[in-house]
Amino acid sequence: MSDAKKRVKSNTKTENKTNNDEKTSAKRPSVNKGLPLRVMSRIVVIISLLIIVYYSSKDTFRTFAKQSDLLPGIGQVVECSMDYIKELHKFEGCAPRDCKRFVTDKVVSVREVEELLRIATKGLKYGGSFGGASILDLHSGAMSKGQHFINIYEAADLKNLFTQEDFNVIRIVRDKIKYSIAHHFGVQPDKIYSTHPTFFSEISDKKAFTEHDEYWHAHVDKVTYKSFHYTTLLYLSDYGIDFKGGRFVFIDEKINSTVEPRKARLSMFTSGAENTHYVEKVTSGVRYAMTIPFTCDKKYAIEDPSINKYNKIHSN
Ligand SMILES: O=C(O)CCC(=O)C(=O)O
Ligand SMILES: [Fe+2]
To answer: Where is the composition biased (Basic and acidic residues) (predicted)?
Structure first.
């Protein structure tokens, strides 16, 4: 082979070698990068999913009133439901400036609430539902017992259980709440009346026995209790301390708002569909609260519970 030919051949070899090297080196990085790329894309998908789950769960719930906060007052205006507004036109001076919810820890004192809790437990220890939810209504006398209700004003062994001082505490607290509604909703205090049923509730984690124990269903107070125009809830125990679960939830289109019960926390809201709500199941401990409603309709007004009524029934 001539020198020139040898040189050409050796150049060709070198070229081929270089080409092969290029091919290999072009392939190699794709092998090295391919694996991390697949892993990377999986990580990206997982992180995106986690972000979606995090934000969507965040979006459906927000804490409107946290148990550990001492709230001077926090409000949220909501659009009145048509049914609610239509009906209120009949009652001069009782329609709210705005439909809303308002939570405050400053209207009722912890001392007053301790008194109310003493009154509630004093009665309920003679009653109590088989299931998780019991009520005591000092106006009608209804108290849960077993799977039924008894009338405490007709039960001879409950005679002298409640004193005029007990009824006074309830009246004082209820009046404070009435003026607070008048102030925050822009209505005349003499145009709103205490209505039925006003009651103490006691909720435990016991399994429901009758439908009366099923407190966790979403509802509109105006539908459940025809007479309600303003609902107020006074909490007598602390979420996360005295009981677990049992938060109050306002159901809204995008974000549900939770109210965490706190001793002496007062929640007030217009009773129409704008404030549809439910109570989460209590998972441990015992939750005490008081439902104190008001009506604009005088025909649904109730008298104060008093020792006279109590004595009248017992002397019959
Ligand atoms: O106890 C609560 O937080 C709510 C009770 C309730 O929804 C009601 O009495 O209608
Ligand atoms: Fe309710």
So the answer is: 12-25
Residue whose CA lies nearest to ligand 1 atom number 10: 221
Closest ligand to 260 CA?
A: 1
Q: Is 279 in the pocket of ligand 1 (CB under 6 A)?
A: yes
Burial 74-95 (b: 16+ CB within 10 A, else e): ebbebebbeebbebbeebeebb
CA distance 101 to 233: 11
Residue 250 in contact with ligand 1 by CB distance below 6 A: no
pLDDT tens digit string along 97-135? 999 999 999 999 999 999 999 999 999 999 989 899 999
Ligand nearest to the CA of 262: 1
Q: Which atom of ligand 1 is nearest to the CA of 261?
A: 3
Q: Which long-range contacts (CB under 8 A, 24 or more apart) does 149-153 make?
A: 152/123, 152/126, 152/127, 153/309, 153/310, 153/313, 153/314
Catalytic residue set: 287
Question: What number is the ipTM of this complex?
Answer: 0.99
Q: Which residue's CA is the nearest one to ligand 1's atom 3?
A: 248
Segment 163-166 long-range contacts (CB within 8 Å, at least 24 positions apart): 163/307, 164/306, 164/307, 166/115, 166/119, 166/122
d(CA 269, CA 75): 9
* Distance of CA 110 from the midpoint of ligand 1 (Å): 20
Would the CA dihedral through 203, 209, 211, 214 be positive or negative?
positive
Q: Which residue has the tokens 């030919």?
A: 5
Calculate mean pLDDT across residues 158-167. 90
Q: Of ligand 1's atoms, which has the minimum distance to the CA of residue 278?
A: 7
Determine contact, residues 68/263, Cβ cutoff 8 Å: no
What pLDDT is recorded for position 123?
Answer: 95
289 CA: nearest ligand 1 atom: 1
Structure tokens at 25: 């080196």
Rounded to the nearest angstrom, the distance between the alpha carbon of 118 and the centre of ligand 2 is 23
